[in-house]
């Protein structure tokens, strides 16, 4: 009996020693992989980690681009060549742009054409939502005629000037809950009503800003000269909202969270991606196209959204889930993380940063703008780097 106990103890100790040695080896290899930038070693590491623990599919959501093509590649690239880059894996990671790809920056047409080609190559993992600047582009495109001498279809492609290039009659395209988020888009069966101009903006200086509006239209017209009919047809087919299956959020890392908040933070959530926001008083299926692309605040008494941030209250102050909403549109607030919302517009086109969140886990990645392309109407948050650090404390890990 004593001999059996001795053998049992020795075998148990051997197992523990073996596990410890394996773990130590993995940690040592991981250190070497990150210490020495050798691409073959990194590929070997990822290959064996995926075999051991399964391939992890990330959802990467990128904030407002506004034509900042170079910064997009900085953000998606691999460190150390791209400090702050998140090592995007095409076809494996799900990539989502949360609107406003165009206007203000140096290469709006380049971003549209690149992303169109990228989505056509990886249709199950590459998505975007439409922002207010795309909506403005659509309105000028429709008002001034679909075709002109300078806008032609791509060679060998059919003329999409008919109904196929019209915006979808619904304002939502939802990815329904499923075992995998890489499923085809399906339109929601709703036809929203758009607010009248008086609902969206009560500005009294409309007549005095006519020249400014003409300058803005000129920028969109120049953009239309660079985009083909096929580009516009593709862009106008993009959804205003995306919904992904239930995802586990990151564990709360901030000691300042209350016990109730920490418990709520740990619950699983659906992921919704929009450009501007959601009206807290309406179900997802009844959100209007205008609110999804333009809204900043909501009037509590009238229960409708407004773009003027001096009216009402910010919609996120009233949004209590259960969905996690990731949005852009509001560079004045910068990176803004709450329990149920993540705002990603960090003013890249204004010389700020381009930011992304990676789910599950809520890891924040950020790269600095290469230059100032446009002056902001309002000052950006004073410390974008500090905002990234604060977001990491609230619920994730800063990637750069």
Structure summary, number of beta strands: 15
Biggest pleated-sheet summary: 5 strands, mixed
The appropriate CATH architecture is: 4-Layer Sandwich
CATH H-level homologous superfamily name: Metallo-dependent phosphatases
Number of domains: 1
Helix content: 25-40%
CATH class: Alpha Beta
Rounded mean pLDDT is: 72
* Strand line-up in the sheet with most strands: 3-2-1-14-15
| Percent of residues in beta strands | 5-15%
| CATH topology name | Purple Acid Phosphatase, chain A, domain 2
Description:
With 400 residues, this protein is an alpha/beta fold. It has a single domain, classed as Metallo-dependent phosphatases (Purple Acid Phosphatase, chain A, domain 2, 4-Layer Sandwich). It is 34% helix and 14% strand. It has helices at residues 2-35, 39-53, 69-76, 108-121, 132-143, 197-200, 210-226, 229-236, 259-265, 289-294, 384-395, and strands spanning 59-62, 94-97, 126-128, 173-174, 186-187, 241-247, 269-274, 297-299, 304-306, 313-314, 324-327, 336-337, 341-343, 353-359, 363-368. The strands form 4 sheets. The protein has a 5-stranded mixed sheet, with helices on both faces. A 5-stranded mixed sheet has the order 6-7-11-13-12. Strands 9-8-10 form a 3-stranded antiparallel sheet, with no helix packed on it. A hairpin with a 3-residue loop joins strand 12 and strand 13. One of its GO terms (molecular function) is phosphatase activity. Residues 146-219, 375-400 are annotated as: Disordered.
């Amino acid at each position: 009996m004593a001999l059996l106990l001795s053998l049992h103890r020795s075998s148990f100790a051997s197992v523990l020693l073996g596990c410890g040695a394996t773990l130590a080896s993995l940690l040592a290899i991981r250190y070497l992989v990150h210490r020495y930038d050798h691409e073959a070693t990194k590929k070997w590491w990822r290959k064996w980690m995926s075999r051991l623990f399964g391939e992890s599919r990330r959802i990467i959501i990128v904030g407002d681009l506004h034509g900042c093509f170079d910064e997009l590649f900085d953000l998606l690239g691999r460190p150390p060549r791209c400090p702050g880059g998140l090592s995007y894996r095409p076809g494996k990671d799900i990539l989502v742009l949360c609107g406003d790809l165009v206007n203000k920056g140096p290469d709006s047409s380049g971003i549209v054409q690149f992303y169109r080609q990228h989505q056509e190559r990886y249709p199950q993992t590459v998505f975007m939502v439409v922002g207010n600047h795309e909506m403005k582009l659509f309105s000028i495109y429709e008002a001034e005629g679909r075709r002109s001498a300078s806008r032609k279809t791509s060679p060998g492609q059919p003329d999409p000037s008919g109904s196929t290039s019209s915006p979808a009659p619904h304002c939502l395209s939802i990815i329904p809950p499923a075992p995998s988020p890489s499923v085809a888009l399906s339109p929601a069966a709703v036809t929203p009503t758009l607010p009248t101009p008086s609902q969206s903006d009560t500005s009294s200086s409309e007549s005095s800003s006519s020249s400014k509006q003409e300058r803005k239209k000129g920028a969109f017209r120049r953009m239309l000269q660079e985009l083909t009919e096929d580009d516009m047809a593709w862009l106008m087919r993009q959804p205003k909202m995306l919904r992904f299956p239930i995802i586990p959020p990151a564990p709360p890392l901030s000691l300042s969270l209350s016990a109730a908040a920490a418990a709520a933070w740990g619950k699983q959530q659906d992921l919704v991606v929009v450009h501007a926001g959601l009206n807290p008083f309406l179900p997802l299926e009844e959100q209007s196209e205008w609110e999804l692309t333009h809204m900043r605040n909501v009037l509590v008494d009238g229960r409708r959204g407004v773009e003027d941030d001096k009216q009402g209250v910010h919609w996120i102050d009233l949004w209590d889930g259960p969905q996690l909403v990731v949005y852009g549109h509001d560079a004045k607030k910068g990176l803004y993380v709450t329990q149920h919302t993540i705002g990603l517009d960090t003013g890249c086109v204004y010389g700020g940063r381009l930011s992304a969140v990676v789910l599950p886990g809520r890891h924040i990645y950020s790269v600095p703008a290469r230059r100032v392309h446009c002056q902001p109407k309002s000052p950006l948050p004073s410390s974008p780097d500090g905002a990234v650090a604060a977001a990491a404390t609230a619920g994730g890990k800063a990637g750069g």
